[in-house]
Amino acid sequence: MATTGRRIFQVIDGNKKFVGDGFDVTSPMPGPRIRQLSPFLLIDHTGPMPVAPTEAPLGTPPHPHRGFETVTVVYEGYLAHRDTAGHTGALGPGDVQWMTAGAGLLHEERHEREFARRGGTLELLQLWVNVPARDKLAPPRYQNIRAEAIPEVLTADGRGRIRVVSGSYEGVAGPAATFSPINLLDVHLPAGTATTLHLPADYNVGIYVVKGSITLHGNRSAATKQLVVFGWDAPELHLTATEDTVLVVLAGEPIEEPLATYGPFVMNTNRELVQAIADFESGGMGTFPEDE
């Protein structure tokens, strides 16, 4: 296999944290390479973690968002969502949730009730995705994308599967609607599979290894819970799975605008952040019925 391809900027290990009372998380970003991965802002990888049976599902309590999107890919277990824009949904293995916070909402994510009752293993990936300034205050939107609705492209040897969540790959379009061009690919490669990924040369590109290990361009390696950040000098990524591997390709047209962030708000200016906080504190992002 050829060894030329996109320059590798950095291989990043994640930091451990616990989110809410139900998510044991590894996060390789945000970090020093955040501008090289725009429009992607954050990666939270939950699990794989055991969930003990309980009648009270664990997770995160209601919290606000404005000005960006959350994208959740479930690998094991089940997750439930609700928000103050009136959206509800449950996700299982292979499903993807693409939520647009837009002008602002509160949402809650917990282990799905029946899954919580029986217990099991939970593993999921959540991304935060920026949107252009013109779309920061768009109406909230919720896309609950079932596994069977996500098309697949096979690698050249027919052994690997590339699930196209958004954008297009090899002429196959993904179902998720986005505000800026994004190719989000969920890639499953048996051990020994070698493939070349073709992505727009002007896109920012990263690979996050959910599990397994890969060799890149014949001489660099990355393994479970590591993020690889690439340059813009070639459209090809050459990789080989050295064991059974699942990885996510994050590729998108960069949003070259000022970035102002504070906790769950992602805007363009500090003044907009002040307004977001005021709107949240005044109840402008909604309430759940039990809180009224």
UniProtKB/TrEMBL annotation:
Keyword annotations of the record: Iron, Metal-binding
InterPro entries recorded: Pirin, Pirin_C_dom, Pirin_N_dom, QDO-related, RmlC-like_jellyroll, RmlC_Cupin_sf
Xref: Gene3D superfamilies: Jelly Rolls
Cofactor: Fe cation
UniProt binding sites for Fe cation: 63, 65, 107, 109
Organism: Hymenobacter mucosus
Name of the protein described by the UniProt record: Pirin family protein
Pfam families reported in the protein's UniProt record: Pirin, Pirin_C
Record note on cofactor: Binds 1 Fe cation per subunit.
GO molecular function: metal ion binding
Family (UniProt): Belongs to the pirin family.
UniProt domain Pirin N-terminal: residue ranges: 26-129
Highest taxon, organism lineage: Bacteria
Residue span, Pirin C-terminal domain: 185-285
SUPFAM superfamilies found in the cross-reference section: RmlC-like cupins
